[in-house]
Amino acid sequence: MTDTPTAIRADIEIKAAVPTFLVPDVAGTARWYSEHLGFRTAGTFPKHAPYAYASLQRDGAEIMLLSLAGYEKPDLSARRPEGLWDAYVRMRGVHALYDAVRGEPFVHMSLKQQPYGDWEFEVRDPNGYVLVFGGE
């Protein structure tokens, strides 16, 4: 037995935390992420639509979609006027990605430099999830 707490053992490595979004239409949402933000569908269950699950990936980022028929994400933004995010995506090339989506109706906040130095912009997906892309 060791005195080292399980949480800090050298043989344990947490690789990533992945946001998981409930959506009424996994295939349609996956298609939106592909067409607008360049994500690819890395896996689905079952293999053919309608899907219960999909993994979307772009570079080192992943988002999981879970099907819930009739689900509507509640809009809680009025309860937190400072901002309400569902995922923060740290990246290189934030200016280039913003240039690719600038003017699209899903851009929720324009690219701007924050007081802490990061450049960030926000998008709202068709289900109401807000993603922040930030870096540099």
Q: Number of domains in the coordinates?
A: 2
Helix and strand composition category: alpha/beta
- The radius of gyration over CA amounts to 17 Å
Give the averaged pLDDT, no decimals.
94
Series of secondary-structure elements, N-terminal to C-terminal? EHEEEEHEEE
Q: Can you give the helix content as a percent range?
A: 10-25%
Annotated CATH homologous superfamily of the largest domain:
2,3-Dihydroxybiphenyl 1,2-Dioxygenase, domain 1
> What's the arrangement of strands in the largest beta sheet?
1-4-3-2
Strand content: 25-35%
Question: How would you characterize this protein structure?
Answer:
Helices cover 15% and strands 35% of the residues. It has helices at residues 26-37, 94-101; strands at 20-23, 40-45, 53-58, 61-67, 87-91, 107-113, 119-124, 130-135. It has a 4-stranded mixed sheet with strand order 1-4-3-2, covered by helices on one side. The chain has a 4-stranded mixed sheet with strand order 5-8-7-6, covered by helices on one side. It is globular.
Key terms:
2,3-Dihydroxybiphenyl 1,2-Dioxygenase, domain 1, globular, 4-stranded mixed sheet, 35% strand, Signal recognition particle alu RNA binding heterodimer, srp9/1, 8 strands, alpha/beta
What is this entry, summarized?
By secondary structure, this protein is α/β, with parallel strands linked by helices. It has 2 helices and 8 strands; from the N terminus they run βαββββαβββ. It has a 4-stranded mixed β-sheet with strand order 1-4-3-2, covered by helices on one side.
